[in-house]
């Protein structure tokens, strides 16, 4: 959309002035000290990144351009008759800081639909991936298969001036967001169905509905869930592994396809995105063991056994959050609004929420005993019959594209340099501390 590109260009120019002035005036201002514990401990809470699209607060959760998820849900344009925020409106918000008007939104929806087309030979390649390959591996490879379409890579090869990097990045970022749901739909049918019979996308539908439709789901409430799911998983500031991996790889001027694929490899780890698949498995194993008449005492014991066997309780804890993840609350609110009170799995999620934080707290070492987004998503998807839980992280990946790709447009717009922090051997670290 010409309007969107103009808005992005204008706000990048304005922000660039602020950044240049700020860097000149305050480039040497200190943000804090770095401790040995942080260097050894995965850089927890160490400031180190400029990331424009979202900011995480340890108690209030994520804000997209200053709006928390409840405000996003309330203020976002909705599908006709719907109550959930629209992913394409969230993408516009992440890129510009505001929601689109109704006419801007309609034009943008059509544009994304058109950008979502994938050339036949690339679709054929993605369809040839083995059924047994993990869907996240297929997602990463599917995105890479589209990399030859990169407009940034071509523009760079043709000698584009560095002040213009953001422009082909913007083009690629929108293409990646538009294409990723098509790639994901092909993967779904590769793994669990017949990839010669993928339902077609409908230009009259919004992004979330179209994605759900291509997966083979026609329940309108599931479409609402997909819209909400994509919006709440889209961004979680810059330090989480998928955003940081995308940002890091992008900082080399690798194009958005290469960088997003790298981010997806990080999302595929069980401590990050894959936790939602692990989480559902945890709940189903619990149901398998205890039947549907479990009690809170049963859950307590099951969690203690899990901890005693040296495993983490998936869906609980967070590196930054210190309270229940608002994304989990959005999931519970959705369940309360749309799912009947006798869904055993959803009730199990709620019972876990009553029981697990106390058990984790009692270990004395878990920094955040509260549920994160993964604790609830699987049970909602199961309710609508999406029970292929190997696939859940792909849904997360489709959503994460919206955040990390919008952020990449801004990173190139602000001219951020290649990332290159310092590392130490343990010996160097010990010597440095002893000599200081
Ligand atoms: N179950 C059991 N132990 C836990 C849990 C948990 N859910 N969360 C933290 N701990 C342990 C952690 O393993 C560590 O133990 P040790 O010292 O023996 O290595 C100790 O508590 C301190 O870790 P924290 O500082 O609380 O957590 P950290 O910031 O290192 O890690 C997570 C954050 C999210 C990786 C961690 O809480 C975890 O593994 N949770 C379960 C997996 C999960 O739900 N991941 C999804 C994250 C959200 N996402 O959307 O990606
Ligand atoms: C995320 O959404 O990326 C996760 O909650 C992990 C994180 O923020 O570290």
TrEMBL record:
Q: Which PROSITE patterns match?
A: CITRATE_SYNTHASE
Which Gene3D superfamilies is this protein grouped with? Citrate Synthase, domain 1, Cytochrome P450-Terp, domain 2
Q: What superkingdom does the record give?
A: Eukaryota
What GO biological process, any one, is recorded here? tricarboxylic acid cycle
Q: Which UniProt keywords apply?
A: Transferase
Q: Which GO terms describe its cellular component?
A: mitochondrial matrix
- Annotated coiled-coil positions are none
Output one GO MF annotation: acyltransferase activity, acyl groups converted into alkyl on transfer
Q: Which family does it belong to?
A: Belongs to the citrate synthase family.
UniProt protein name: Citrate synthase
Q: Which organism is it from?
A: Halteria grandinella
């Amino acid at each position: 959309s010409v309007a969107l590109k103009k808005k992005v260009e204008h706000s990048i120019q304005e922000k660039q002035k602020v950044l240049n002035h700020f860097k000149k005036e305050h480039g040497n201002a200190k943000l804090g000290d770095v401790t040995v514990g942080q260097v050894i401990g995965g850089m927890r809470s160490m400031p180190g990144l400029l990331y424009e699209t979202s900011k995480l607060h340890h108690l209030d959760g994520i804000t997209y351009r200053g709006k928390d998820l409840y405000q996003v849900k309330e203020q976002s344009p909705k599908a006709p008759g719907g109550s959930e925020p629209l992913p394409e409106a969230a993408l516009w918000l992440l890129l510009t800081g505001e929601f689109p008007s109704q006419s801007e939104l309609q034009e943008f929806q059509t544009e994304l639909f058109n950008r979502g087309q994938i050339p036949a030979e690339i679709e054929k390649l993605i369809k040839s991936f083995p059924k047994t390959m993990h869907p996240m591996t297929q997602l990463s490879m599917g995105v890479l298969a589209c990399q030859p379409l990169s407009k940034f890579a071509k523009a760079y090869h043709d000698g584009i001036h560095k002040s213009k990097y953001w422009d082909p990045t913007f083009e690629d970022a929108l293409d990646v967001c538009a294409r990723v749901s098509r790639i994901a739909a092909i993967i779904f049918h590769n793994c669990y169905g017949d990839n010669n019979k993928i339902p077609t996308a409908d230009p009259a539908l919004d992004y979330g509905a179209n994605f759900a439709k291509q997966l083979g789901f026609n329940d309108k409430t599931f479409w609402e869930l997909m819209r909400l799911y994509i919006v709440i998983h889209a961004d979680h500031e810059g330090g989480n592994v998928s955003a940081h991996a995308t940002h890091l790889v992008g900082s080399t001027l690798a194009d958005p396809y290469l960088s997003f694929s790298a981010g997806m490899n990080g999302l595929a780890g069980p401590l990050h995105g894959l936790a939602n698949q692990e989480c559902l498995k945890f709940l189903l194993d619990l149901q398998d063991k205890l039947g549907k008449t479990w009690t809170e005492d049963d859950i307590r014991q099951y969690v203690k056994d899990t901890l005693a066997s040296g495993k983490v309780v998936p869906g609980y804890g967070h590196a930054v959050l210190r309270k229940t993840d608002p994304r989990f609350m959005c999931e519970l609110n959705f369940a309360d609004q749309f799912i009947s009170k006798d869904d055993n799995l959803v009730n199990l999620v709620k019972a876990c929420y009553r029981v697990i934080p106390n058990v984790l707290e009692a270990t004395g070492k878990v920094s955040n005993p509260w549920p994160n987004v993964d604790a609830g998503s699987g049970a909602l998807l199961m309710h609508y019959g999406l029970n292929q839980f190997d696939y859940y992280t792909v849904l997360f990946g489709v959503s994460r594209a919206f955040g990390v790709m919008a952020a990449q447009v801004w990173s190139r717009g602000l001219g951020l340099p290649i990332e290159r922090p310092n590392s130490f051997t343990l010996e160097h670290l010990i010597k440095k501390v002893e000599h200081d």
